[in-house]
Amino acid sequence: METINYLVDGLAAILTVKNLLLLSAGVLLGQIIGVMPGLGPTAGIAILLPLTFNADPTGAIIMLAAIYYGSMYGGTITAVLINTPGESATVATTFDGYPMAKKGRAGQALVIAAGASFMAGIVGAVLICVAAPLATRVTTSFGPPEIFLLVLAGLLTLVVIIDGSILLGLLSALLGFAIATVGLDVGTGAQRFTFGSPDLIGGIDFVPVAIGMFGVAEVLQALLRGEHRGPGSPVDSSGRLRDIWPNRQEVRESTGPAARGSVLGFFVGATPGAGATIASLMSYNLEKSISKEPERFGQGAPAGVAGPEAANNAAATGALVPMLSLGIPGSSSTAILLGAFLMWGLQPGPLLMEQNPEFAWGLIASMFLGNVMLLLINVFTIPVFASIAKVPLRYLATPIIVLATYGTYAINKSVLDVAVMLAAAVLGLFMRRFGMSCAALIIALVLGPLAEMSLRQTLIISDGSLGIFLERQASVVLLACLGAIFALPFAISRIRRRLSASSAKPSETDEPKLPTPLG
Amino acid sequence: MTSARTNVASARAEATFLGAMALVLAWYTWHGFQLAWSTPSSAIGPGLFPRSIGVAGLAMTLVLLARTLAGRATSGEDGAGANRHWLPLVAALVGVYVCFVMLFFVLGAFLATGLFSMGLLSVINPGRHLLNAVQSAGLAGILLLLFDGLLGTNFPSGMFLPF
Amino acid sequence: MTISLMKRVKVAIVALALVAAASACAVGEGSGNGDEGGDYPSQAMDWTIAFGPGGGNDRLSRQIVEILQQEDLYPEDIMLENREGGSGATGWGYLYSQKGSGYGIATTSGSFITTPLQADTGWTGADFTPVGSLVTEDSFFMVRGDSAFKTWADWVAYAKEKGTVTVGGTGLIQINFILQKLIASEAGYKIKYVPFNEDGQVQSALLSKSIDAMFAGPGEVLGQIEAGKMRALMFTGPEPLAQAPDIPTAESLGMAPLPSQPYGLVLPPDAPDSAKDWWIATMKKVVETPAWKKFIEQQGFSENVMWDAEFTTYLEQTTETFKRILTEEGAL
Question: Is residue C128 part of a domain?
Fold first, then answer.
């Protein structure tokens, strides 16, 4: 309980008018940056980091945390409104967030995402107080074999996300894996599919592909379908601006997933590597597996927004654990924070929490407050953003395409990135037309390199033997979890069928209200 | 009658797409086989994954192609598939976009964005010239302020305007 | 409906293409990068960091820029950009593409030498306009804090008995790999080298008992050493590090001198002399500031200052050394 006191002290130290102003400024700035396609938390922190050097370390940390959450949420906004994930951790949000927006419930999706993130913020702050040692054990027992198993868990989402033809879905994933092999092979230094072009040595980045394949292709397809010939007035008068609050059923459907996503995200986030991305995909996977109506996923199910959003947010807090307790950056954003620590003259490492407790707890407290401020500011900004979803396509199409171009170009000032974005958009159009799955391609593109790298590392360590997965304690535990995730949907549907068969007779009119084991 | 004809057309389109995909994947697989599948120290080499991906992808594409040719069109987007001008329209959109990106470096971000926006709007929102002009200028201006001003992106400024 | 849409699109394409062609002609005449004359810093500086946030290049770049801004040395804006990918190939390739300009700049590290050795980057370090070498970073040989190895001799005894040990580091053709190979062949054991993408993953792999040892810069692991999570058995520098005076140097253990990670600063190829001279003069001031001295000490860097052509020669010599070692070890 001593740690709780630290947290309270940290909060008390932060609550000054100046700091609250910094906090709200950071959240707003972060949101503006995050809403640009292609610019996410890493870019946001990197761009605004120099601003913070003039502030004192506490003020700077507060501002960074605020920018971090603001820009993460900015990515959620684009994921929901224009189907464009700002970074790989928000890919899962597009699966149901965008369908919700298409059904006219953009505001609700954004509120659910904000609420789930807020819950994850609270759960994360509590877990970092009570479960940091456990999370540290995750970090110190996860080597390449365990990371490979985690990536596999993330890839299981492919099974869940592919609807329609399984063959076409798998082919889409293989295309993603193929694109991921372009570039310098870190394992051997060989160049693959670069054909002597220095521009391709760095590989094909996920961000331009995602912007093209999701955001731009979606707009182009709508134009090709002739949807711009809809109602002509620039402002839709139907539906009031304040109509953003989810109804009671949506809230009920989101609470459980958000809670599960928070806990899952926290621990997966403590693994150095693609913590937040895998966490959000795993959460989506889990929610669809245990849902009573899995067929609603992909059609705008609130649970499909709440779970992944909570998971990627909690993963951000979880990533702090290895950084604070071991000095190991758990994600690229925490790597920037770590660099910032050094600049403030703080020695990152296991002793940071002992030697500078006020600073470490100040950081945790500001991440918590960043979440609170995000929620407060969202009350004002969500109606504005949600109203964008009601602007007719003919006015929205051009800005989206131009913004996508600007964002893509701004990342590296590279025309090649813009070309990749365009190619992805065209490929996306063809894939949609012939029933292939863009989501499967993107997941494979993000997780493919990690899967290949960690498997190869594992096999170097084990001299090519797969037995290593059974020799390491952490691997065995993960394998068991993996098996459970895989078996869960079958087990649950079987239990449901049996239960509904026995309860069908007494009350036929009632909606089957079954006790869910995990809900 | 008509639906039968569109079915044939869409099956043909699908077969062409899958055929193109098979060619690309065959090319990918061939290059994959140029890369060593294992390293001298007998670890996995750079070629193992590309080879496996290529072979599996090629096999799947060929199965799909065979099915389509056998008359069992797998699925397909309904509305878009029926549009006879789908392909030319996609090509046109790509062409306009490529021009936009070229102009970006010649005229600078502001002018290129304004022109592209005007051009696209005159097609998808015809007749409302004033509104379109205001929207285009506003879009170009706001994005310029945001990216050049706030984010310091330094877009190419072109040769006619200082920004 | 669709027909008319098609027609309008066609008109739009033709119009845009005409404008594009016209302006392309005009640009052909008016190109050339304007005022590269006497008053050199008159534009914003485009500063490339060829690696991700948090790494050595990143920390070094951000520190230099901070000093430049605090001392008001650069009158215009400086825009820092992480252009990561392909072990530095993306970022330094970007700088290479700014050929002739005096307004692009980047820090360089060991990968500036090793990346062109392994990949067809289209450039080598000597192509760029040198500003100077700034610091070198030596590293610690690290094992787990709970391992049985208390001294370097313990480790060598274990490695020799086992024959082949598993070690790891970032990348393959990198200074970490060179160091591991050198000490292994000198001590007489073999290694399996596991390449990783990021420093954090290597540390995590060591702590999770996936690898037995690694090399790491003082900035990354001094905290770990202090807390006892990891143990340093050897330091590659010629002198023991001030913050860890007890860790023996390689030379004191009877080994041949080991290479260190060289950090420097370069401009694009064929940058104007005015730009080069300005940066050399300015960096000479920067390396004298107290902030810089403090930074070097904090990071555990060693000063290694040399300017202009001397730096190019140094780069060429180091390239030859690395190439020789890598060829001898059969990695190239």
Answer: yes
